[in-house]
């Protein structure tokens, strides 16, 4: 994951050990729900500004499955990932990489 956002991007949040993302729309607002790997009972919700519907992209994140279930989309990652959420105008980009603990466990095995 990049250390700093490119010029013109606003970092909304950085979260470690995410196992799944839910992208949703309620009335006139987009929202993103991040669920932690191994602890799906706890999550972090990011409310995007109301009145604007954003294009939400997921980049550089290894994922297993994407499930579309109107009005939301669920994206299951291939293991825990550290993610960064950035906004650039009308786009929101979720970037990430495998969590460091997961990488070292795979390297040892």
Would you mind describing this structure in some detail?
- The chain is mainly β.
- It is globular.
- It contains 1 helix and 7 strands.
- It has one helix spanning 100-108; strands at 10-26, 29-36, 39-47, 55-59, 63-69, 72-88, 91-98.
- Strands 1, 2, 3, 4, 5, 6 and 7 form a 7-stranded mixed beta sheet that branches.
- It has one domain (10-108).
- The model has no long low-confidence stretch (mean pLDDT 87).
Features:
109 residues; 1 helix; 7 strands
Task: Show the helix and strand layout.
Blueprint: E1 10-26, E2 29-36, E3 39-47, E4 55-59, E5 63-69, E6 72-88, E7 91-98, H1 100-108
Parallel strand pairs: 4-7
Antiparallel strand pairs: 1-2, 1-6, 2-3, 5-6, 6-7
In short, what is this structure?
With 109 residues, this protein is mainly beta.
């Amino acid at each position: 994951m990049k250390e700093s956002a490119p010029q013109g991007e606003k970092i909304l949040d950085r979260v470690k050990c995410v196992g799944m993302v839910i992208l949703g729309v309620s009335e006139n607002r987009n929202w993103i729900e991040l669920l932690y790997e191994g602890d799906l009972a706890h999550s972090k919700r990011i409310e995007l500004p109301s009145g604007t519907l954003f294009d939400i992209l997921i980049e550089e994140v290894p994922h297993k499955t994407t499930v579309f279930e109107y009005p939301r989309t669920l994206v299951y990652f291939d293991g825990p990932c550290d993610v960064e959420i950035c906004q650039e105008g009308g786009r929101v980009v979720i970037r990430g990489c495998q969590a460091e603990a997961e990488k070292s466990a795979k390297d040892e095995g």
